Amino acid sequence: MAQVTTGKEIVILKDESVTLPKGFKAGGLHCGLKRKKLDLGYIASAVPATAAGVYTTNVFQAAPLVVTQESLAKENKIQAIVVNSANANACTGEQGLKDAYEMQSQFAAELGVKDHLVAVTSTGVIGELLPMDKINTGIKQLLHKDNEGVNNFLQAILTTDLMVKQIGVQMNIDGKTVSIGGAAKGSGMIHPNMATMLGFVTTDANIAYTDLSSALKDITNETFNMITVDGDTSTNDMVVVMANGLAGNGQLTKDHPDWEVFYAGLKTVCEALAKKIARDGEGATKLIEVKVAGAFSQQAARAVGKAIISSNLVKTAIYGTDANWGRIVTAIGYSGVPIDPNSIKVSIGAYPVFENGLPTPFDEAKLKQYLEQENVQIVVELNQGDVSATAWGCDLTYDYVKINASYRT
């Protein structure tokens, strides 16, 4: 494991996760919600941690979100998160809310902490009650040494994901090594504005709640809210960050001389997780990155990027290695951003395909070869200002239909 001792650089540790920061542990087990795979997990801090969250914009918020938002609001601290997969506990009425509270209180009892110091998250099928006998049995075993380990946690949170998503970074703040670790799940029902994903971020930094919350919201708008897989926004999902202060640095605020270093580290973690979610879209074969430059505002740049990355016609063209630039231009046109069609330039990779209102001649064979790569970039220059934004998504394939046609079975 790399350690940072001097300088302001950020060291990226791709194989690290939420247990990289001091004082955090994680684990998971199979409690019977899935046939064989792990389905119940946790993250716990040795001490209460300052905590902040962002949540789905779907008006049908699942019961676990209600419980978690109440917990974080009580004193802006939590000490643990318990999460189950395979069942979303969404649209389950009063019983679903009671079950979420029961998950909270049961795990709090196992940890020996107050109920409000435990956050609850769920993901999976909507509209089915949790089998609480299985959940409660699992919670009683969750902290056993045999179930401890971050890999168990990473597996327990997955649904249709094909890969675990994790990253860690370290940096120097006040002469102390500060770590930030992240893990996420998400593969389908992914769309800008907090869709079906769970994001877990831990840090041993000592940081003020107000500044942590503000940073998370700003960074979410630049990262998690700039991805899409299929345009569906779900009922459950959230990103939660926990900061337990065990690194021993002086308290971070926006006025701290090392604030920008911490902010950059947190953004690095969130952006990496967002891109991993986009790449792991159900049935996906490619990660698509859309860079928008020259916008007159941040809102305009993001709107254009989201319009392109959300277009099913663009996504299917990329899957088919078809340089159909007309679909990209069309998406820009309906983005709602006022533009001059004669001033924009569109490129696919290094190949300009549209400029000054007209198509640009390109080598069809070379561009097709470029589109066969796993990572595809679309660049749009609006020539209206100096603001830019980046969005991420994936191609839309036959397998996406197969996966979602039989999700409940």
TrEMBL record:
Q: What class of enzyme is it?
A: transferase
* Positions with a binding annotation for substrate: 159, 185, 196, 282, 404, 409
Print the keywords alphabetically: Acyltransferase, Amino-acid biosynthesis, Arginine biosynthesis, Autocatalytic cleavage, Cytoplasm, Multifunctional enzyme, Transferase
**Site positions per UniProt: Cleavage:** 195-196
Which residue positions does UniProt flag as site: Involved in the stabilization of negative charge on the oxyanion by the formation of the oxyanion hole? 123-124
Enzyme Commission designation: 2.3.1.35, 2.3.1.1
What catalytic reaction does the record list? N(2)-acetyl-L-ornithine + L-glutamate = N-acetyl-L-glutamate + L-ornithine; L-glutamate + acetyl-CoA = N-acetyl-L-glutamate + CoA + H(+)
Q: According to its UniProt record, where is this protein located?
A: Cytoplasm
Concerning its family, UniProt says: Belongs to the ArgJ family.
What PANTHER family would the database entry show? ARGININE BIOSYNTHESIS BIFUNCTIONAL PROTEIN ARGJ, ARGININE BIOSYNTHESIS BIFUNCTIONAL PROTEIN ARGJ, MITOCHONDRIAL
Protein name per UniProt: Arginine biosynthesis bifunctional protein ArgJ
Natural source organism: Neobacillus paridis
